[in-house]
Each structure stands twice: as C-alpha cells, then as structure tokens.
Amino acid sequence: MNPSPLSDSDLDRLEQLLEADVFEGDAMRLDEIQAMLCAIISGPVPVGPAVWLPEALGKGLTSGTDPQVLETLELLMRFNNDLAASLLADETIGPVLYPLDESGEDYDYLAWADTYIYGAGLGGDWFELAGKHAEDLSELLEPMFMLNGMLKEDAEKTGERWFSPAEEARLVADIQENLPLIVQSLYNFWRNKRAGATVKHEAPKSGRNDPCPCGSGRKFKQCCGRPDKLN
User: Fold this and answer.
1) Helices (H), the chain
2) 138 and 230 in contact (C-beta within 8 Å)?
3) How many angstroms separate the CA atoms of 78 and 73, rounded?
4) Of 36, 31, 230, 35, which Cα lies nearest the Cα of 150?
5) How confident is the model at residue 216 (pLDDT cuts 50, 70, 90)?
6) Count of CB atoms within 10 A of residue 137's CB?
7) Is residue 175 within 8 Å of residue 167, measured between CB atoms?
8) Burial 158-195, CB ≥16 within 10 A → b, else e
9) CA distances (Å), 204 to each of 9, 149, 220, in order?
10) Residue 132 in contact with residue 196, Cβ under 8 Å?
11) What digits encode the pLDDT tens for the residues 13-57?
12) Is 180 helix (H, G, I), strand (E, B) or coil?
C-alpha cells in the first residue's frame, strides 16, 4: 500500500505546477503523464525516473533546485506509486481526461492513448519482448491504436475497407468506456509473462474465417486478424 497517496487537492496542485513558468510550457499535461506512467509500470522491463522524468517535465527539470520543480518531483513520484499500487491490486484506474472543447461532451482520449503508446516505447520493443505471445499483445493493444487513429491511418494507406462512420463511432465509444479495463489487462499480460504464467484469453480465439468479434461484419482475417494491422 502506498504510504502517502495523493489526495484530490494534491492532484490539483500537481496539475497547476505542470503549467508553471519554470517548465517553459514543455511539461506534459497530467493526463499524458498518467498514460505514460501506466505503460511504464505495466511494461516488461523497469524504466526508472531518470528516463521518464525528463519526458514528463522537459526543460524545466534542469532547474532542479527550484522549489516548484522540487515540489513537482515529489508529487510525481507519489503519483507513480499510486498508479503502481492500483495496478498491482487489480484496481481499475480512472483515466485523467481533458475535454476537447468548452461543451465538455467529448474528451481527449486520443492524447491519452497516444502517450500510452509512447510510454510503452520507453521500455523497449514490446512486441519483440512478448516473444511467442506477440499476437496476444497485439490484440490487447489494438484498442489504443484505435483511439489514437493509427489503425485508421494504416487502413487508409493500404486501401483496406474501413468502418462506416456509425460503426467507427460505436467501436470507439466502447473502447473509451472500457479503457480502465484495457489498461489493467495490459498490465496483467506483462505481470503474467514475468511470472512465467500462461497468458489467458478472456474469450476463445477467432478462426481466420470466422466473423470478427469486433462486430464489423467482416471475416476475422480481413479485420482484427490482419497480420499487418499493427505494423
């Protein structure tokens, strides 16, 4: 258990500090830091603060004796510990999300997913490290690539049929709703692999010619089962 968990006021203070002049506008937002840390904590190899802190704070980290920088560092380490404790305990993490506009109806899931993928890259090549379980990892990561637009971009480049606007909206909404579970599943994937346990599937694997379980109406081999989809 984290002996010094962050309170709501601590998180508000951290959010405020990240916008301080000392960071020259170079620090990540709180949502981006959360996503990056979730990936780092989940990953196959340790990634220390010496690696992720410069990514999070940018230029301002060089002002290490500044009181605001020191306070930010202390809050960030506690934030990291909170996330690690929650993932270890199989507690679903509520993602920090910012609204895309003043209406507050749509949130920036793209930034969260994009920074998660970026954070994963700080821990080496996940697919290479997954070894024989790389296909399982691809399935778990696919929602992140759907949220950050990479799957759609890949389909457009290769001329593959993409979902209709209604299908795409439905899939994206479902992923957004289940993002905490997706994050926990990725953490559990690597935890099981580190422990030498068998990677478990929540549902039977789809055959290549079976209807894709995503509900697109296409065969699995033409949709989520495409071997090049995440390349």
Assistant:
1) 8-17, 30-42, 49-57, 67-88, 109-121, 126-130, 134-147, 150-158, 165-177, 179-194
2) yes
3) 9
4) 230
5) low
6) 22
7) no
8) eebeebeeeeeeebbeebbeebeebbbbbbbbbeebee
9) 44, 27, 13
10) no
11) 999 999 999 999 999 999 999 999 999 999 999 999 999 999 999
12) helix
The C-alpha atoms of residue 73 and residue 10 are separated, in whole angstroms, by: 12
Give every CB contact of residue 181 below 8 A, 6+ residues apart in sequence.
Answer: 92
Q: Exposed, middle or buried, 131 (CB in 10 Å: 0-12/13-18/19+)?
A: exposed
Return the structure tokens found at 117. 């993928």
Q: Which of 45-54, 63-72, 82-91 has the weakest average pLDDT?
A: 63-72
Structure tokens at 14: 């951290």
Residue 159 tokens, joined: 């001329």
Q: What token pair was written down for 133?
A: 């379980």
CB of 145 within 8 A of CB of 152? no
DSSP 121-136: HTTS-HHHHHGGGHHH
Distances from the Cα of 162 to the Cα of 31, 98, 158, 159, angstroms:
29, 28, 11, 9
Question: Is residue 23 classed exposed, middle or buried when 0-12, 13-18 and 19+ CB atoms within 10 A define those classes?
Answer: buried
Cα angle 74, 108, 55 (rounded to 5 degrees) comes to: 35
Residue keyed to tokens 């962050």 = 6
Question: Residue 212 carries which side chain, given as an amino acid letter?
Answer: C
**Angle subtended at Cα 60 by Cα 102 and Cα 114, rounded to the nearest 5 degrees:** 50
pLDDT at residue 221 is higher than 90: no
